[in-house]
Specification:
Elements (H helix, E strand, L loop, with lengths): L27 H12 L6 E6 L2 E8 L8 E6 L12 H7 L6 E5 L10 H5 L5 H14 L4 E7 L1 H12 L6 E5 L13 H7 L4 E8 L2 H5 L1 H9 L6 E10 L6 H15 L15 E3 L1
Parallel strand pairs: 3-4, 3-5, 5-6, 6-7, 7-8, 8-9
Antiparallel strand pairs: 1-2, 2-4
Helix pairs in contact: 5-6, 6-8
Length: 279
Amino acid sequence: MLHQPSRISQACLLVFLTTGVTAAPPGDYERGVSEKLAEAQEPGKAIWLSAGPDEFLALFESSEIPGPGRAALILHGLGGHADWPDVIAPLRTGLPARGWATLSMQLPVVEPGESWAAHARTVAPVRARVDAALAFLEQRDFQVIAMIGYGFGGALSAQYLAARRPAVDGFVGISLYAPPYLQDAVDLFASLERIGVPVMDVFGGRDIEDVRMQADDRRFALRKNRGRRYRQSIVEGADHLFSDFSVVLVDRIAGWLDTAVSPTGEDAEAGTAPPIAEP
């Protein structure tokens, strides 16, 4: 599927790039995390994006393989950051070798130990940040864009895709779940019912209980739209952090993206197949 230009509103195109680390996102805790991440990057990879008055960090990696412009926007889990060592860093640095540029964006976060109400308040700014990140990728002329969300970042991705018709061609949810104490802020299953792009639902065979126990509910929610291309894939032996399985995870996701989210729109996995357990 190829994008038409300017599918995001002009207000969302207020995106800027700096190679320094002088820009700062809001909030003292997030500011400190983001500045440390930016300082650790090679020049040009730490990008500050603008979502209205909100400035936030994103980490960009170019594809290592010439070909069609393909990019993955990555959203980390609850309380994490854009270069989280588990799942996020392996994906953002591993997918470029498979022909996918990556943009790993910083979500709003609060200091550990804050109340669940404080965590819930971080949901509202996410939509504008995703708009800005997608606008950046469109400005870089990427023709195929996927969203990848991990844990709560996956639930936020699903909510975004259900509410909008953005320039996104596919969605990968890793260890998808919404914590019960945040369900008022994000209704994962209602969101899954409304997503209109191909979906991959991947989780570990030793994942946390909520992720494993909700697998059937996620599949049933997605089956309500039978025209959607959907795959549920279990990485046997993997825990929630995909410890020792990061290479498998990257390969699994890259393989699905190459088929279900391809420049020609071809998909060998149409429909809502039963879950596939793969070693």
